[in-house]
Amino acid sequence: MSAQGRPKRDPWRAEHGGGAVRTAGVGDSIAWALRRVGAATIDAVARLGFAARFSIAILRHLPGAFRRLRLTLREIYFSGVLSLVIILVSGLFVGMVLALQGYDVLSRYGANESLGILVALSLVRELGPVVAGLLFASRAGSAVTAEIGLMKTTEQLSAMEMMAVDPLARVVAPRFVGGVVSMPLLAALFSTLGVFGAYIVGVRLIGIDSGSFWGNMQAAVDFRYDIVNGFVKSVVFGIAVSAIAVFEGYNARPTAEGVSTATTRTVVASSLSILALDFVLTVFMFRGVHG
Fold first, then answer.
1. What is the pLDDT of residue 179?
2. Does the structure show a pLDDT above 50 at 1?
3. Which of 52, 81, 172, 203 is the most buried (most CB within 10 A)?
4. By residue range, what is the domain housing residue 103?
5. What value does the mean pLDDT of the chain take?
6. For 244-254, how does the pLDDT look when each residue is reduced to its tens digit (9 = 90+)?
């Protein structure tokens, strides 16, 4: 004991670490990990709650978006018309590649005349809505997120609130409607150009009979179970991508890094949502056809 009545400090124990010190270090690590998990859980729940309230607010402002028809048409032009190049070119080449691959497989079984059926059903049921949705998310969805995020960073949204203008009604709702309207049209154009590309490769280059190509396609594609189901998928994908894009932009941190992070998160979340929703919708649609 020292003169003050306190235990002496053990230099070797302090240098090499005793049992009490080691136990405290493990306890601190566990506490730190628990705090991290708790903070992440709280943030996730808070973000989920904000997303739910945000979605309800968008639905409440949808009638106002149709009253602001000029703004909505401008957003349809921004999301749809400006995405035509990547959609049309991609659809054309996807159809051409699909025709080449399909012909190689079908020719092994003497079913060359079924190339039109293969291409049409693949595009209308799956590739058209899914690939068009992924392209739409990467081009239009990221642009919407960046635009709204920059408006938040430059305090344009705050200025609207100061002037008694609701940013959800003026900025968010028209962009959401524009994305939902544009997505099914882009998916239809993607499938159309894909079939045309397959026609160029299959009929003009390979030499499949044109009448068999179009006749078999017309007989195999059903309007209700193929075209309507593909349209439903594209509408659902449009709702998902548009909702994620406007939410991430509105919820972005008002910094350059925050906007870039929100844009990246939009593309990733939209792509995963499209693939997951495609599986769910395909399960229900397949069950409806064969149930």
1. 93
2. no
3. 172
4. 68-290
5. 86
6. 999 999 988 88
Three-state secondary structure string covering 139-176: HHHHHHHHHHHHHHHCCHHHHHHHCCCCHHHHHHHHHH
DSSP state of 171: I
Residue 7 three-state SS? coil
Q: Looking at the structure, do residues 105 and 29 belong to the same domain, yes or no? A: no
Question: Would residue 6 count as lying in a domain?
Answer: no
Cα pseudo-dihedral 71, 77, 78, 81, rounded to 10: 170
Q: Which residue has the higher pLDDT, 207 or 93?
A: 93
CB 95, CB 119: distance < 8 Å: yes
Structure tokens at 171: 């900025």
∠ at Cα 127 (126, 133), nearest 5°? 100
Q: pTM to 2 decimals? A: 0.83
Judge if 108 and 156 occupy the same domain.
yes
For residues 246 and 175, the answer to whether their CB atoms sit within 8 Å is yes
In 3-state terms, what secondary structure has residue 6?
A: coil
283: enclosing H helix or E strand: helix 256-290
108 plus 250 within the same structural domain: yes
Question: Residue with structure tokens 């997505």?
Answer: 183
Residue 7 lies in a domain: no
Q: Is the dihedral of CA 217, 222, 228, 233 positive or negative?
A: negative
Instruction: Identify whether residues 198 and 57 lie together within a single domain.
Output: no
Same-domain check for residues 54 and 82? no
Q: Is residue 57 part of a domain?
A: yes
Share above pLDDT 90 across residues of the chain, in percent, rounded to a whole number = 52
Residue 22 has pLDDT above 80, yes or no: no
Q: Which of 221, 196, 228, 222 is CA-nearest to residue 210?
A: 196
Tokens of 130: 């899914």
| Shared-domain flag, residues 80 and 204 | yes
What's the rounded Cα separation, in Å, for the pair 134 and 241?
Answer: 9
